[in-house]
Design a protein that fits this description.
Elements (H helix, E strand, L loop, with lengths): L1 H26 L3 H32 L1
Length: 63
């Protein structure tokens, strides 16, 4: 369970960093960074949702 908590934290930090890069890219008109940050953030969000569903399933099975 500790590994999953760490992985969740890494995904959250990755999403925040991608959002910062996305904002920076928009302000500096560097749209290649905007596209890359949006893609990576979307991947992190999908992986985070999968992880949360897996953890929720583990918790429900214990009850």
């Amino acid at each position: 369970m500790g590994k999953k908590m760490l992985l969740n934290t890494v995904y959250t930090v990755g999403i925040v960093v991608c959002l910062a890069i996305l904002i920076w890219g928009i302000q500096n008109k560097r749209y290649e960074f905007v596209m890359a940050a949006a893609l990576v953030a979307a991947v992190f969000v999908v992986l985070k949702i999968k992880l949360l569903k897996e953890v929720r399933g583990m918790i429900n099975n214990k009850k």
